Automatic annotation (TrEMBL):
NCBIfam families: PRK02090.1. This is Adenosine 5'-phosphosulfate reductase. One of its GO terms (cellular component) is cytoplasm. One of its GO terms (biological process) is sulfate assimilation, phosphoadenylyl sulfate reduction by phosphoadenylyl-sulfate reductase (thioredoxin). Its main location: cytoplasm. It comes from Candidatus Aeolococcus gillhamiae. The keyword Iron-sulfur applies. It is found in: Cytoplasm. Its cofactor is [4Fe-4S] cluster. The keyword Cytoplasm applies. It is an enzyme of class 1 (oxidoreductase). It catalyses: [thioredoxin]-disulfide + sulfite + AMP + 2 H(+) = adenosine 5'-phosphosulfate + [thioredoxin]-dithiol. Its EC number is 1.8.4.10. Belongs to the PAPS reductase family. CysH subfamily.
């Protein structure tokens, strides 16, 4: 069931100033539970959306993609989130045959040799798994925010994701600032990815992400901590 464009544009205008919880409630009322999913890369914004979604529907599908190159800290963090929420988190892996062929032909770290190989690696490990997931749903929820980058400055709360066959993309915290996300997670006692404390601002594959500056949490803000300045050198 793909949503009608006109209906969604009307809803988008209505929900643009709504709270994230209201946006999530709209998605839940609009799409049946087996046709919607929260997809998170386990960064603070996506985890906040997952937490809100779980609060509204404890059985909501929450999913992350394990590229096979994630840092060990991310696997530990997944365990911490499972323990915190008292439920599972789906993990989607790349097609093993594709990874085997790619690594067999180009080695374990070909992304260091060319942009083309980096894009191929991302396509196999991230893009294709996400496409497989989205082929089976009508709605996906993300932690995209307008403040994350210039490219995302016009992110809508609700969008039609033409790159993924017209699935509805819901970004409940699109209008939130980073401070609001971290404050929400602190108030809810949801753990943050441990690499934020190590100075990572964008957390993805271990070989393609590096520490740059600490995240601004409420505690750090009180102490004059630095604000947004991030960079992943991966393909996201
Ligand atoms: S971020 Fe790096 S390791 Fe991860 S899929 Fe992309 S190129 Fe490969």
């Amino acid at each position: 069931m793909r949503a009608g464009r006109e209906e969604l544009l009307l809803e988008r205008a209505r929900l643009d100033t709504a709270s994230p919880n209201d946006v999530i409630e709209w998605a839940f009322s609009r799409f049946p539970s087996d046709r919607r999913v929260v997809v998170t890369g386990l960064q603070a914004d996506g985890v906040a959306v997952a937490d809100m979604a779980i609060a509204a529907d404890p059985s909501v599908r929450v999913l992350t993609i394990d590229t096979g190159r994630l840092p060990e800290a991310t696997h530990r963090y997944l365990d911490a989130l499972r323990a915190h929420w008292g439920r599972g988190i789906e993990v989607v892996l790349p097609e093993s045959a594709e990874v085997e062929s790619f690594v067999g032909g180009h080695g374990s770290n070909p992304f260091r040799r060319s942009v083309a190989l980096r894009l191929d690696c991302c396509r196999i490990r991230k893009v294709a798994p996400l496409e497989r997931v989205l082929a089976g749903v009508d709605c996906w929820m993300t932690g995209l925010r307008r403040g994350q980058s210039e490219r995302r400055a016009t992110t809508s709360v609700i969008d039609i994701d033409e790159r993924h066959g017209g699935v509805v993309k819901v970004n409940p915290v699109a209008t939130w600032r980073e401070d609001a996300v971290t404050e929400y997670l602190t108030q809810r006692s949801v753990p943050l990815h441990p690499l934020y404390d190590a100075g990572y601002r964008s957390i993805g594959c271990a070989p393609c992400t590096r520490a740059v500056a600490p995240m601004r949490t409420p505690a750090r803000a009180a102490g004059g901590g630095r604000t947004e300045s991030t960079r992943s050198v991966g393909c996201t």
